[in-house]
């Protein structure tokens, strides 16, 4: 292990901080990258010192498989470690290790939950600003050694909300996080209810995310594209517990928008998320799904399939998603690829 990273991991174990690493940026796409018809999805990684140490090696393994691009669906740390800036800088350096474009959307652990004492007692909106500063310093451009251009909501203040199109598939990557999309109280700062600033931030971010989703569907219908893919951190349909309304209420407008748009789209729709850490596939908006009543949704969308990627202690693999040739049984197919020891 390189000396610099060993020192950083020792600091993490002792204090929860990591030595800063300068980010790099490359503006010239590598030749021939678009010929690939697969992409990777990961999330809720790295969690804890062992995964932090392993993460560069895992990035190298994904690079060796040469997916056209990789999506990280949020949570670059676990929920009980500090939200210190040097750690974010180190993860940015790891992200710059990806050979092909990397699209990252924030998770709740790197900002909404940073009010917790064991996270450093930070103001979450301040950590959100830091996350954008570190990871979205070139709006409209992905991360990775050979970045790609994307359509960004940077002008509206949300550089992390992006759209892109590959192989007649439209992608919408939206910043929607657990902790009820940051409407749960910042108890570490002495709050028992959501603050006015907290509510205003969430409503504006959710409105922009829904607009990005609707635009992706509009473009897909106009071009007669094959599928629409939405990626985000929050698991809005977590099957591992029965949520209270205060756990999920903020997601209702997006769930309704997805139902509306998917039901009007002729092709398949795919929703990839992290957050609940256990690989799972289902159709949460299909007719008869209990989630329709939970969210009070009008209509249904049988064509929307949801995929949760492994994360946290289950983070032993990455998800390789293949864009199949026309005529295949599905536009997308996927397999979990184990990391090598």
From TrEMBL:
The keyword Signal applies. InterPro entries: Metallo-depent_PP-like. Residues 1-26 form the signal peptide. Keywords: Signal. This is Calcineurin-like phosphoesterase family protein. The lineage of its organism: Bacteria, Bacillati, Actinomycetota, Actinomycetes, Micrococcales.
């Amino acid at each position: 292990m390189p000396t610099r990273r060993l020192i950083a991991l020792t600091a993490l174990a002792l204090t929860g901080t990591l030595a800063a690493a300068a980010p790099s940026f490359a503006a010239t796409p590598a030749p021939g990258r678009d010929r690939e018809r697969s992409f990777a999805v990961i999330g809720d990684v790295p969690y804890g010192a062992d995964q932090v140490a392993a993460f560069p090696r895992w990035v190298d393994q994904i690079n060796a498989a040469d997916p056209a691009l990789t999506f990280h669906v949020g949570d670059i740390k676990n929920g009980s470690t500090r939200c210190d800036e040097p750690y974010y800088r180190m993860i940015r350096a790891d992200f710059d290790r990806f050979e092909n474009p990397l699209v990252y959307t924030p998770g709740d652990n790197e900002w909404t939950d940073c009010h917790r004492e064991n996270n450093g007692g930070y103001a979450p909106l301040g950590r959100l600003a830091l996350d954008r500063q570190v990871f979205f310093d070139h709006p409209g451009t992905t991360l990775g050694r050979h970045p790609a251009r994307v359509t960004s909501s940077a002008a509206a203040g949300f550089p992390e909300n992006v759209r892109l199109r590959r192989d007649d598939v439209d992608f919408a990557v939206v910043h929607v996080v657990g902790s009820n999309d940051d409407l749960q109280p910042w108890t570490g700062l002495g709050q028992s209810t959501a603050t006015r600033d907290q509510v205003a931030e969430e409503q504006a971010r959710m409105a922009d995310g829904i607009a990005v989703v609707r635009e992706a569907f509009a473009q897909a219908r106009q071009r007669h594209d094959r599928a629409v893919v939405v990626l985000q951190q929050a698991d809005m349909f977590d099957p591992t517990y029965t949520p209270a309304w205060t756990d999920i209420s903020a997601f209702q407008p997006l769930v309704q928008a997805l139902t509306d748009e998917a039901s009007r789209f002729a092709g398949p729709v795919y929703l990839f998320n992290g957050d609940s850490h256990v690989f799972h596939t289902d159709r949460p908006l299909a007719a008869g799904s209990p989630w329709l009543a939970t969210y009070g949704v009008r209509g249904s969308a049988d064509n929307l399939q949801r995929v949760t990627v492994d994360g946290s202690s289950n983070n032993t693999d990455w998800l390789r998603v293949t864009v199949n040739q026309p005529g295949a049984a599905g536009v997308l197919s996927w397999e979990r690829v184990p990391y090598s020891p």
